[in-house]
Design goal:
The chain is an alpha/beta fold. The protein has 14 helices and twelve strands.
């Protein structure tokens, strides 16, 4: 600490419970704005000023909540993630596994959500970066152009999850949403279905949902079939939305004999509507979900679905971030297997 800063700290040292950022700024001989930047965004403050502010903060006992380690080491030990939603259980599985790996290495996780909106994802990511996160976990591979520029400029380690994009400039841990649905279509066609409908998630700002739709189109085309507009419905991932979508499909002429849902939640809605209308599954309608949530195995009949390796995704993402922060290779592309789990909701079409 310089003589000037030490003298100022003695002069202005209040009770630590009352120390303010203004006190720190006065002791360091800088503006409040500069003191704030030094404590929250140290990479944009010159070294001499940074030392004065940190010395003054330490001398005065000023400590933003949870920032003791950051002030000593200039590292936050924080990782941030922006989820599309906090309502969906599959993301909880990923976050639990990610947090466990990070915790084992002394890191904490900050979780926010975007509401499936790229502009909001940008805003939340910027906030996390301003809070000093050392790495970022995002869902999907398509993001707001300004976010991509920000991540590149700040050189913050970032991992895209739920996607596998080997040509991406960013690391990714996940699976190919376009090719994995081929397993579903081939299974349904192999047991005799030719009228296959899809209830997809909202594809706007959701590359996972749009890739699954594209995958279904290509898989059907490869088997000499198509996906008519009347057989494709986009809905939010809600049980009621799945029920509404099925009512629309039942009005189609001819009605489909199989429905592939872009999530288990939508499939649950379809099964609920089938029960309401007395439609026998799979005798009259086959139903397939996506995710393999815990409840899928406990239906009667159990739900045929794609199993998303959420926990493995979280673990591999955590390990990659720890390696990046330890100076290991910067970019990795990790492809995981998403398997088709056959249960009782699929069978041959009605004669």
């Amino acid at each position: 600490m310089t003589a000037r800063t030490e003298s100022a700290a003695r002069t202005h040292r209040p009770d630590t419970r009352r120390t303010s950022l203004k006190d720190v700024a006065r002791a360091a001989g800088v503006s409040v704005a500069t003191a704030s930047r030094a404590l929250s965004q140290p990479d944009i403050v010159n070294d001499a000023t940074l030392r004065r502010v940190h010395d003054a903060a330490n001398a005065l006992g000023y400590m933003p909540d949870g920032a003791a380690r950051a002030l000593r080491s200039r590292r936050s030990r924080l990782i941030g993630t922006v989820l599309p939603t906090l309502d969906y259980a599959i993301y909880n599985n990923l976050i639990a596994a990610l947090q466990q790996i990070l915790g084992e290495h002394g890191y904490s996780l900050l979780v926010t959500s975007s509401g499936y909106n790229h502009a909001e994802e940008l805003r939340q990511s910027r906030t996390l970066i301003e809070r000093g996160v050392e790495g970022l976990v995002l869902i999907g591979g398509n993001h707001h152009p300004d976010l991509c520029s920000l991540l590149k400029a700040r050189r913050i380690p970032v991992v895209d999850t739920y996607v596998y994009s080997p040509d991406s400039e960013r690391s990714c841990v996940g699976f190919d949403n376009e090719t994995v649905v081929v397993k579903v279509i081939n299974h349904l066609v192999d047991i005799g279905h030719t009228r296959i409908a899809m209830i997809a998630g909202i594809t706007h700002d959701n590359d996972r949902a749009s890739d699954r739709v594209e995958g279904v189109r290509k898989a059907l085309a490869a088997r000499g079939l198509g996906l008519p507009d009347r057989y494709l419905i986009e809905k939010p991932y809600k049980i009621a939305a799945g029920r509404q979508a099925l009512r629309s499909l039942l009005a189609a002429d001819p009605m489909p004999t199989a429905v592939f849902c872009g999530s288990d939640v939508l499939a649950f809605g379809v099964l609920a509507e089938c029960a309401e209308q007395g439609i026998r599954v799979p005798d009259e309608l086959s139903v397939v979900g996506f995710d393999n949530l815990e409840f899928c195995a406990h239906f009667h009949p159990g739900l045929t679905t794609i199993e998303v390796p959420a926990a493995t995704m979280g673990q591999e993402t955590g390990r990659h971030l720890i390696a990046r922060l330890s100076g290991k290779p910067e970019v990795e592309h990790v492809e995981l297997e998403a398997n088709l789990i056959l249960r009782g909701t699929t069978g041959p079409p009605p004669r």
